[in-house]
């Protein structure tokens, strides 16, 4: 095992006024979708990152953005950098309209790479 740390950053929109439970559910969706993406990707590097993250306790940080544009920017940067990333749109069954973008996840990946994308964001 290397000394490098691994984590996942989950980014949630605060401008939507979601309740705490709703925001937590959207964060969970983003986290799970990023893991599913890795498992389905066939990318050995991502699979290695996932395993290291799992072995190190699955560190997660939940961060906030204040707009759709900010959420899209985080997701786009992660994809451009070659990191596993998910982008969640709500199903519209409770508080939001169907298709409303709510959250994204970056990683699991080496912490230094995740921080390049999300390091300037505030905690949710």
Per CATH, the architecture is 3-Layer(aba) Sandwich
Silhouette: globular
Low-confidence stretches: none
Please state the CA-atom Rg, rounded to the nearest Å: 14 Å
How many strand elements? 5
- Overall tally of structural domains: 1
Summing up helix and strand content along with how strands pair, one would put the structural category as alpha+beta
* Strand and helix order: EHHEHEEHE
The CATH class assignment is Alpha Beta
- Which range does the strand content fall in? 25-35%
CATH superfamily: Bit1
Number of helices: 4
Could you explain the architecture of this structure?
The chain has one domain: 3-Layer(aba) Sandwich (Bit1), CATH 3.40.1490.10. It has four helices and five strands; from the N terminus they run βααβαββαβ. The model has no long low-confidence stretch (mean pLDDT 96). Its main location: cytoplasm. This is Peptidyl-tRNA hydrolase. Keywords: Cytoplasm, Hydrolase. The natural substrate for this enzyme may be peptidyl-tRNAs which drop off the ribosome during protein synthesis.
Topology:
Layout: E1 6-13, H1 20-41, H2 44-55, E2 60-65, H3 68-80, E3 85-89, E4 101-110, H4 111-118, E5 122-123
Parallel strand pairs: 1-2
Antiparallel strand pairs: 1-4, 2-5, 3-4
GO molecular function, one term: peptidyl-tRNA hydrolase activity
GO cellular component, one term: cytosol
Function: The natural substrate for this enzyme may be peptidyl-tRNAs which drop off the ribosome during protein synthesis.
